[in-house]
Amino acid sequence: MPTLSFLLPLSLLATALSFADSQSFIGVNYGQVADNLPPPEATARLLKSTAIGKVRLYGADPGIIKALANSGIGIVIGAANGDIPSLASDPNSATQWVNSNVLPYYPASNITLITVGNEVMTFGDHGLISQLVPAMKNVQNALNSVSLGSKIKVSTVHSMAVLTQSDPPSSGLFDPALGDSLKQLLAFLKETKSPFTINPYPFFAYQSDPRPETLAFCLFQPNSGRVDKGNGKLYTNMFDAQVDAVHAALSAMRFEEVEMVVAETGWPSNGDSNEVGPSVENAKAYNGNLIAHLRSLVGTPLMPGKSVDTYIFALYNEDLKPGPASERAFGLYKTDLTMAYDIGLDKSSPTSPKGPVTPAATQWCIPKGGVTDDQLQANIDYVCGSQGIDCGPIQPGGACYEPNTVASHAAFAMNLYYQKVGRNPWNCDFSQSATLTSQNPSYNSCVYASGSP
């Protein structure tokens, strides 16, 4: 008999509570290659009005760092590729960098990570690659000297090109040509408990394989999934596949304990006429479903039960970026501070965008086949215990109490949640234990809530 204990499992309780505030695993990149950006104070107010818990800067802009003081928002600051030679060769240069870019603002401004260089390993400059770890060590030593070494981590950001193999995910391998440099880097990250930061972009994977089934796989939309032939695990989205390929590569080098951070991922809302994939619809689907996936705390097949800290690219469109039009169209917000499209980041409505997109036909949210009773019971507890939703119909004497099974009660509760908070795919996720159906599951006097098409 399912128990309507209304007591939230700890993971779901943490999720529910975090919806009311910023979410530590959801970050955003603040690129500044633009001539129309709002003042730092306005950007800080915008960030504080959202569920975004972290912001990544590509440099160390003092205006935005100061504007975020006392906000609690985590801040990643960066040393440029051009800074690496001096940071590597002269410890005093690293000390000066920390003295200029960290000490005036910390701890009021919550600086959590310094990234030394961006995609250096795949930049093609072997001299710069050889200087990367020495530069990171000098920055770390500079932090240690002012007792911040355990509070602010030091890392560097990589493109997916550091892998020479990623399909299937379990076969992920780093480029052998980078072997010695990566070993030194990973040893440093392990010693300092700093993250390996990576830039996975399903958008680019779709551009190289523009089939409809690939698009659904990249956008977290319903698809048949892909089975990893190496370990038999089923992947239902490209993001998990890319992240797990990196994890497998780390494991192959025996550094699986090094935590990962997704430094960049996103989808453009516009592009040139010859570009495949950019659109508001696709950008909204990718970023909205990505956030739902992170909020579910389901994790990936190789790293279940937790969400990798993920920084979405980007806060604003950057009108001065070179390249195809898509490069200038990754922004979640316009520079007039309005949303480019709504993916539910507003704190006033953190689980569903305003003006939910109504499906073309009436749909109901029900459990997927094969889901365990424990997972379904957790879904019941979450919906009925924390969301202000009336689960009376599945309590004894209610119209939907019979059949008295976990699956039946979960179906009613999960659908009620989906209909109440917004009929969007991310509200029928439930740690990937739910699916949408066009068949009305109502029976006898038990009527399932529905929305008009």
Automatic annotation (TrEMBL):
<feature type="domain" description="X8">
    <location>
        <begin position="363"/>
        <end position="448"/>
    </location>
</feature>
<dbReference type="GO" id="GO:0005975">
    <property type="term" value="P:carbohydrate metabolic process"/>
</dbReference>
<keyword id="KW-1015">Disulfide bond</keyword>
<dbReference type="GO" id="GO:0042973">
    <property type="term" value="F:glucan endo-1,3-beta-D-glucosidase activity"/>
</dbReference>
<dbReference type="GO" id="GO:0005576">
    <property type="term" value="C:extracellular region"/>
</dbReference>
<keyword id="KW-0378">Hydrolase</keyword>
<keyword id="KW-0732">Signal</keyword>
<dbReference type="InterPro" id="IPR012946">
    <property type="entry name" value="X8"/>
</dbReference>
<keyword id="KW-0964">Secreted</keyword>
<dbReference type="InterPro" id="IPR017853">
    <property type="entry name" value="GH"/>
</dbReference>
<dbReference type="InterPro" id="IPR044965">
    <property type="entry name" value="Glyco_hydro_17_plant"/>
</dbReference>
<dbReference type="Pfam" id="PF07983">
    <property type="entry name" value="X8"/>
</dbReference>
<comment type="similarity">
    <text>Belongs to the glycosyl hydrolase 17 family.</text>
</comment>
<keyword id="KW-0326">Glycosidase</keyword>
<dbReference type="InterPro" id="IPR000490">
    <property type="entry name" value="Glyco_hydro_17"/>
</dbReference>
<feature type="signal peptide">
    <location>
        <begin position="1"/>
        <end position="22"/>
    </location>
</feature>
<dbReference type="Pfam" id="PF00332">
    <property type="entry name" value="Glyco_hydro_17"/>
</dbReference>
<protein>
    <recommendedName>
        <fullName>glucan endo-1,3-beta-D-glucosidase</fullName>
        <ecNumber>3.2.1.39</ecNumber>
    </recommendedName>
</protein>
